[in-house]
Amino acid sequence: MKRAADSGSDERLLKRANSSLFSIATLDNSNEEGIGESVVQQQLASLNCVQDGGYFVGSSEDSEEANLGHSGGRNNCDCRTAVVFEAAEKHFDRHNKFHKERPARILSVSDCLSKTTSSTEKSILERCHDISNENSRTSCLGEEDFLRVHLPGYMQILDRTSCCCNDRLDNEAEQYKSIYFTNSSVQTAKIAASSFCRLVGDVVCGKYDNGFAVIRPPGHHAEPGFAGGYCFLNNVAVTASYAIERLHVRKVLIVDWDVHHGNGTQKAFIDDPNVLYFSIHRFDNGNFFPFSKDAGPRIVGNGHGEGKNVNVAWNEKNMGDDEYLVVFEKLLMPIATEFDPDLVLVSAGFDAAKGDMGDCSVTPECFARLTRQLKTLAGGKVVCALEGGYVRSILCKCVESVVMALLDGLDDTWKDETNSFYKNLGDKEMLDCIDPSAAKSIRETITAHSQYWQCLKEACK
Q: Could you list the active site residues?
């Protein structure tokens, strides 16, 4: 159910475009199943480090070896960014080969990152460490890794789809919203989650600085006992739990900038004090998918996890760069800095991108800038997993921009961008310079969380 545009929307958008203070264009920024335990043991053994209050510090020899072994086409100022691709080609809609969530999404991104503009220039993919070939075609995760997030009965239902006839598969899919199955769907989804866990393990142990898992099916709508929105295993939730339980990471920040609320991820960690879930999404007062009032700003977490669930819920369409940058400046970065995570996972959906299906206007350059800000947290240990984004030409540009930001080893880029932000702002209050509906949403989230975060107390005085 989509919200109808109000009669003054075009005029309001034109006014915003002409008076934008923070948009990228105004910035002075010329810098441009039985093997699970063995994998964990290998990653922990490769640390050769000490644990100090939950922090891992790799030895200089490990870092030197990683650089020597994988330098390839990297530029001297590049970070050690790893990527992994999982197209899940055996998972598709049997009734609609042109379904928007299909293997072509991943294949298009891989092709895009492999392109060069000249015979001497290295492609983006050549500057990264592509670990797809290192990713076994079987899951490195054991049953217990999925059961930390998903219920046993639900996992049994999913596993039974591997031997169902087509009619039974369709009947099972009809129990959920926007789900389809083949006999191979669940196994390919386990491989996708496994590839993300492997990548995160390599980043945690210091082999790589950061990474991007270009994988499908997406995961953030998958609840502990319920599938939906093309998702039936929650990649990010499984990986966050894996990092805490198997890799001994102390605290994890999950940033979800997909245009849809990650209802599954929220449910998985609603009472967990060690996982901070931060989502920016369209809400439309509960009338935007997944159509839940629990996506609103007042859902702050339960019990020990109170204050660790942050929803910035848009109630209008067309939110763009300005609004997202202000969310980061006013809310996400102050809260995240106070939370002090050891690892940042990003549910990187790009359906909020301008021209995609979410009726928002975020540019690829803005996604890159948000990524650079996140790299100032957790010692730069930022790992993204693809969620939504269905117009492939736009998806490719967004992933490209984020991977370039991950590669960027120039520490001052984000500082220059922040200085430009405040220079453009002048003496104005930033919430007065963005869409009024967005400003209201941000204020509602600040009010809901001011009692939990010291950094927000002043904002509510």
A: 221
